[in-house]
Amino acid sequence: MSGINYKSVRVKFEKTGLAKYISHLDLNRLFARAVARAGIEAAHSEGFNPRTKIVFASAIPLGIESLCEFADIKINEAETETQIFEKFRYVFPQGINIIEIYEPVNNFKYIDKTRFNIFVKPDGFQTEELELLFNGDVFVEKKQGAIINLKDYIVAVNASASGEYIKINALVRTNREMYLNPENIVKGINSKYAVEDYFIKKIEVYDKNNKIFR
After folding, report:
1. pTM
2. How does DSSP classify residue 62?
3. Contact at 8 Å (CB) between 113 and 154?
């Protein structure tokens, strides 16, 4: 639409419950539909099939809950962040919860680390044994033919009891040079012990200065 000036806003949102099974491609479509349903004037790509301009920070692995996902959208600069937040509140399905909308501070390329809570149900091992495991070298196949040492990717890790589960609080590298899928931590545990069941939550994202990403 000509004559409109656009600005970028950053949408911080949660992806929990059944929404953790929404794929990255479907999430993109869901956001585009939400923009239309909310009546938000957003920038679109050019060409025969224009699409709403939305950029996500990253594609979270399917089945992992997240409390800190990000999407950048170009909108009519006449709209305030508060107005967009109010319009967005009621157009998303259950599990997609809009936390905050604000002017972006950092480019997504400055994301450096992510904190995950990994809950594993142990089959014959204790919390102390996990702590000991991650104090040493743990080799896993990150992808076919690529063996990595988890110690190179994990910045900090500790384990504690959480009901019938053991909670692993892991801060890992998730930048462009070194990216660790938290599933590999479970794979590392399984290299020595047996995990009966597990689930993962993405808790927070940090920049290269170890500050909460904005």
Report:
1. 0.92
2. T
3. no
